[in-house]
Structures are given as structure tokens and as C-alpha cells.
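SEVERITY: medium
COMPONENT: batch folding queue
REPORTER: lab tech (J.R.)

DESCRIPTION
The queue accepted two submissions in a row. Attaching both inputs and their returned C-alpha cells so the on-call engineer can compare them side by side.

ATTACHMENT 1
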Amino acid sequence: MTTPRGLRNNNPLNIEKSKGGNPWQGEIVPSKDSRFAQFRTVTYGYRAAFKLLNNYQRNYGLDTIRKMITRWAPPSDKGNDTEAYIRAVSTRSGVPADCHITTTNRDVMVPIVAAMSFVENQVEAKMFDVQAGWDLFIQNR
């Protein structure tokens, strides 16, 4: 089985390269991937995901799985089945799609990001890695 692109890049949520020239902590610049950021370790990839979702809430008021996923994987991007993505993350995380969430709540966000990683890669996330990414995020918000 071929390793999914997100895992090869240590970028389990497939975060696109930043266009502003301000790299993520742990990002490899320049990325050898044509579209997505690459990270030194998967922990940095998860940290970036937590940071980005936290920015969604702080900057845009996105406070539910539905709102976050609609921005993360919008239906306007070719090939996205946004509703299926929302259902999968909600089901796998145990968090209702329209329930208010706080992106600084570890007990909510770790399962959500693990579920998003599964949707992106079709491979179960290693919870140790997701939690390590959370720890980096909390230390360096």
C-alpha cells in the first residue's frame, strides 16, 4: 500500500503551502510538494492543524465542525464532498456537527483532528502523534 500524500509530507490534514511567505513552525521550505506544505515531523503537521483551526475560530467565528470543515474543504473546490467530510468527522469524533466547540479544549479537538486526518488519508491517526501536536500547539499558541 502506498503511503498517503499527507503522511509522506508529515502533513496529515493536507495544509496547503502558505502564500504569504510566513512558514509554519517545523515547515520545510521550500516544499518539494507542488501544493501542500511539508513538515519535519508529523507532530509539527498536527500542530499546524490545531493552530489553523484555532485561527478559524478566533478570526472568523467558526465554532462548529460544520463551519470549520466548510472552510477547510469547501464544496466549491472540485472533488470535495463537504457534507460527507462533516458527517465522517462528526461521527468519528463523537462531536455533533452543529455543536459549539472551543478550539482550546483538548478533549474535543484531539478527536476532531484525528478524525480529519482519517478523512484526508484513509488511515487511522496515531493518537500519540495527534496528542504530541496538541502539546506543541498549547505551548506555542
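ATTACHMENT 2
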Amino acid sequence: MTKRGSKKNNIIPIPNLKGRLLEKGMEELHDKNYRQAIELLEQTIFLDSENSEAYIGLILANFESGYYKKAKELAEE
């Protein structure tokens, strides 16, 4: 009996996901929906840990939400 393929290899990447998450996160930040912005920007950073624009947006969203300690920790990184 042969295996047709591993289910682990069945991942289909979504085109430009990082860019769309960043764009939507920054849009939510601009619209003052800080909690939603934090969620989207954290997802962006998970996919692209070198994205400085996402980090800046995340720092601002945390600061505006009153999460000063988290904003400071992110800024220090």
C-alpha cells in the first residue's frame, strides 16, 4: 500500500498575505481600532519578523490602547 502524499505538504500560501495584513492593520490603526490593529500587525510580524513598518504600527497601537509597558518593550527591541 502506498501513501499518496503527506498532508503536511498540502499548505497553499495565500498570495501577498503579509502585505495585505500590514495594509489592513495600518488602516485599522488610522481608524483608531487599536485592538484590531494589534491583532493584524502581530500576524504580520509572525510572518515577517523583519518588517519595521509593522513594528512601528504595533508600538503605536499598543501605546494608544494604553499598553504602555508593551509599547516600551517593543520599542526597545
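NOTES FROM REPORTER
The helical segments are 17-30, 34-47, 52-64, 68-76.
No errors were logged for either attachment.
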